Amino acid sequence: MKSYKELSDTELVIHFTGENQQAFNEIFNRYWKQLYKYTFNILNDSALTEDCLQEVFTNIWVKRNELEINNLKNYLFSSVRFRAISRIRQAKFTSINEEIIDSLVVDQEILYDVVELEESIKAAAEQLTDRCKEIFLRSRFQHQSNKEIAESLNISIRTVENQLSIALKHVRNVLQNSGSLAILLLFYL
C-alpha cells in the first residue's frame, strides 16, 4: 500500500471514513496551514482561527461515518468558512450588544408575552409532519443553519428550505388565526 502522503484526497476520504486515524492525520496535515491562512483572513484572530479549525476537524472526525464528501478540499474550505462566519456573528453580537442587553430592564409582562409566543409557536409546530417539525425546531429553537440541518439529517439544503417554508406558512397561519399578540411578533419567525 502507498503511504498516506501519496494517496489522493478521494482515497484518503475512503480510508478516513473507515475510521483510519492515520488517514485523518494526513488530511489534517495536508490542509491545516491552508485552512489556517484562509480562516485567519476572515477572522483576523489567531485564537478564534484555531478554535474554528479545531471545531471543524473534530466535527469531521465525529461525523466521519455520516459524511458524504465528494471533494475534500471544497468540503474543508466550505466548513471553515461557515464556522468562521458563525464566529463573526457571535462575536459581533456579544461585543456590540452585551452591554446594552445587560443594562436593559425587562418588563415582566413583555417577558411573559415572549414565553407565550414561543409556546404558541411550538404548539403550532406540533401539527407539522415529523420531519418538517424537526427541521423547523432545529432552525428556530436550536439555531442551526440550513446547511447544518441538511448535513445532520442527510438531506439536501433545498429540502430543508422547502420544509422550512411549509413550516413557516403553517405557523404564521395558526398564529394569525389565534389573533394574539403573536401577530405583532411575527418578525420572530
Could you please describe the fold and organization of this structure?
The protein is mostly helical and 189 residues long. It has 2 domains: 4-100, RNA polymerase sigma factor, region 2, helix turn helix motif (Rna Polymerase Sigma Factor, Chain: A, Orthogonal Bundle); 105-188, Winged helix-like DNA-binding domain superfamily/Winged helix DNA-binding domain (Arc Repressor Mutant, subunit A). 74% of the residues lie in helices and 0% in strands. It contains 8 helices and no strands. The protein has helices at residues 9-17, 21-43, 46-62, 72-103, 108-125, 130-140, 146-153, 157-178. Helix 3 packs across helix 4 and helix 5 (108-125) crosses helix 8. The chain is elongated, with a radius of gyration of 21 Å.
